[in-house]
Design goal:
The protein is α+β, with helices and mostly antiparallel strands and about 300 residues long. The chain has two domains: about 5-55 and about 65-130, Roll (Membrane-bound Lytic Murein Transglycosylase D, Chain A), CATH 3.10.350; about 170-290, Glucose Permease (Domain IIA) (Distorted Sandwich), CATH 2.70.70.10. It is built from six helices and 14 strands. Strands 5, 6, 7, 8, 9, 10, 11, 12, 13 and 14 form a ten-stranded antiparallel beta sheet that branches. A two-stranded antiparallel sheet has the order 1-4. Strands 2-3 form a two-stranded antiparallel ribbon. It comes from Paraburkholderia caffeinitolerans. Pfam families: LysM, Peptidase_M23. InterPro entries: Cell_wall_metabolism_enzyme, Dup_hybrid_motif, LysM, LysM_dom_sf, M23ase_b-sheet_dom. This is LysM domain-containing protein.
Length: about 300
């Protein structure tokens, strides 16, 4: 059997397998899939069927060396190519030739949009691979093919430098601007748009301290939802609020120092103590944990 005859036989087998894969894919692939996503949805059977058959030939091979698989240049056979006509689309051409649009796009290196032009010659069948017999031991050796050089070993990742920049979040926790106002566990975290501060569970009557030096802007219980509340202004941009206290120890206008006790924590109906702690920067709520040290004193 000649090379061309064997190539035609393989091409026919590949065309049948590809048509079966296209019919299976038509049950799940939607028209709006991109070429990349359609290719990902291809059944595994299609790739297996596209591989050259490894079945032995009916004609015995006497002493020839193992065959080397080489790509056959595109031929002018009309079954393998199609010239685009007016009104054609990639999808229509794929259906007509029982192929997947993604495959035709890949064979012809079409743009991601899948646009085709009138008069464009497209490959509509898989490229055929033919067997080229290697030279026998007695024949003159052809020009040898140099083995591809092995790629250089990848450089081992270097250890992180001591001077490497610190991520913003970590930097905020390392260079904390505020101190913990009370010792306890955070039971309610900050949530943008939902929770404007954190709730720290603590013992009832625990000392509540100023997170930084500043001036008391408000001390009272006139703001709904905060109970007995203290608000401290630290600079032109930063204020802190301490809510749900049991007893207030400062009044509006007082100057407080870092760590100075300003209140005692309150308790709910079942005796559980908690402090509502909020931080406002330029008038907007920010996560208090980003301003506090990782460990409590």
């Amino acid at each position: 059997m000649g090379i061309l005859d064997k190539g035609a036989e393989i091409a026919a087998a590949v065309a049948i397998a590809a048509a079966s894969a296209a019919m299976l894919g038509a049950c799940t692939v939607t028209p709006w899939h991109s070429s990349a996503s359609v290719a990902d949805d291809a059944p595994a059977a299609a790739s297996e069927a596209a591989a050259p058959s490894s079945a032995p030939s009916a004609t015995p091979i006497e002493t020839s060396a193992p065959a080397v698989v080489a790509e056959v240049p595109p031929s002018s056979a009309t079954a393998e190519f199609y010239r685009v006509k007016a009104g054609d689309t990639l999808s229509r051409i794929a259906v007509t030739h029982k192929q997947r649009a993604a495959d035709i796009a890949a064979w012809n290196k079409l743009p991601a949009s899948g646009t085709v032009k009138v008069g464009q010659l497209l490959r509509v069948a898989p490229p055929v691979k033919a067997s080229v017999a290697a030279p026998t031991p007695g024949s003159a050796p052809a020009k040898s093919l140099a083995a591809p050089a092995s790629p250089p070993p990848a450089a081992a990742p270097s250890a992180p430098s001591a001077n490497a920049p610190v991520p913003p979040a970590a930097a905020a926790r390392t260079n904390a601007r505020l101190a913990w106002p009370v010792s306890g566990s955070v039971v309610t975290p900050f949530a943008p748009g939902k929770q404007r501060g954190i709730v720290v569970a603590c013992a009832p009557g625990a000392p509540v301290k100023a997170a930084a030096a500043g001036r008391v802007m408000y001390a009272g219980s006139g703001i709904k939802g905060y109970g007995k509340l203290v608000i401290v202004k630290h600079d032109a941009h930063l204020i802190t609020a301490y809510g749900r206290n049991g007893r207030l120890l400062v009044k509006q206008g007082d100057t407080v120092k870092l760590g100075q006790q300003i209140a005692t924590s309150g308790a709910d109906a079942v005796g559980v103590g908690a402090l509502l702690f909020e931080v406002r920067e330029n008038g907007k709520p920010v996560d208090p944990l980003a301003q506090l040290p990782r460990k409590q004193p």
